[in-house]
Design goal:
By secondary structure, the protein is α/β, with parallel strands linked by helices. The chain has 5 helices and 9 strands, in the order βαβαββαβαββββα.
Amino acid sequence: MKIIILSSSLNKKSRSLLLSEYAQKIILDQNIDCTLIDLKKYELPFCGEENANDHKNCIHIKNEIESSDAILISGPIYNYGVNAVLKNILDLTSKAWEDKPVGFMCMAGGQASYMSIMGFANSLMLNCRCLIIPRFVYALPGSFDDETRNITDNSIKQRIEQLCEKTIQLGKTLSKG
């Protein structure tokens, strides 16, 4: 079994990356293969550019997604939606996502946009036939100690643990079929 975590924040002090790292530790502690792909480390073309899908980084990420049994996405919420990095990687690799369970860990500035991931989730369900794991993690700035770079909100940790548990369960179940 293999789980991919895509972290889409471009911020050097990304809090959503902390969510990704915590999830990866939980999954690895269960002796499950888990690869964290920090998208800020990859130069990627924009979808629609000539030969964009043939770019080496696009091919690498597509192969990682294709070889996974489940996907966790971590990223910021901007303007009531996922960031452009995440939308772009989906556009570049969409066929690789087909029939996979997908979970979300979101970082936002306030409570008002807690459902903002739904447009992206709908796209995954309708276009890629993904199964969306209904255990979203939605964190706010007060959930972190920025100085120590730690998650301090135990309810966020617990929700990440629950999301990882459900991701593993669904990934195992669907990969058998």
